[in-house]
């Protein structure tokens, strides 16, 4: 999405109006297929993280990515719980594929296997395989997620800016999870349940 905005990468040499047209076409594809699940995103305040989490959890998971990944997974599970309150479809396992984030991503999910067995129901029932990372070049779904993430970041930095694409790919739904200080404190408490031995074994 950044390449499309600034004429870099795959969009080098393409005029701005054509780049915007291409982005609009991509967003219409997402809207056409209308994924059943909610467009979900979350963010946290860096200063809150430093104040509440930094240095108070195991070094293997002392990363904002760990908090953000956990909240995205939790949000997806709670969305499924809400669906089942209205339409009893049964709880399905959810597997997560994240965009590659260098070393930060794999480090942030090293806690996952150790935590799954300690999750309460129905969260444990919905916990799928350990999250994996793939390059968005090869997965259209990740390209869609990248488009959403870019627009969310843009909206946070420029709240007065209006972009039709953002409304198109979120279907008018609000899937924003703003991670509060209380949520960060809950995360710190949750990490105390993780098997330290298992974490130490992780690379």
Annotate the secondary structure layout.
Elements (H helix, E strand, L loop, with lengths): L1 H5 L9 H18 L7 E4 L1 H7 L11 H23 L10 E3 L4 H5 L3 H5 L6 H4 L5 E3 L5 H18 L6 H7 L5 E4 L1 H11 L4 H6 L2
Parallel strand pairs: 1-4, 2-3
Helix pairs in contact: 2-9, 8-9
What is the overall pLDDT average?
82
Give me the side-by-side strand order of the main sheet.
1-4
Q: What structural class do you assign from the helix and strand content?
A: mainly alpha
Number of strands: 4
Q: How would you spell out the order of helices and strands?
A: HHEHHEHHHEHHEHH
What's the gyration radius in Å? 18 Å
Short note summarizing the structure:
The protein is mainly α. The chain contains eleven helices and four strands.
What does this structure look like?
A two-stranded parallel ribbon has the order 1-4. A two-stranded parallel sheet has the order 2-3. The chain contains eleven helices and four strands, in the order H-H-E-H-H-E-H-H-H-E-H-H-E-H-H. The mean pLDDT is 82. The protein folds into two domains: 1-34, no CATH class; 37-201, no CATH class. By secondary structure, the chain is mostly helical. The protein is globular and about 55 Å long. Helix 2 runs parallel beside helix 9 and helix 8 (140-157) crosses helix 9 (164-170).
Give structural attributes.
203 residues; two-stranded parallel sheet; mainly alpha; two-stranded parallel ribbon
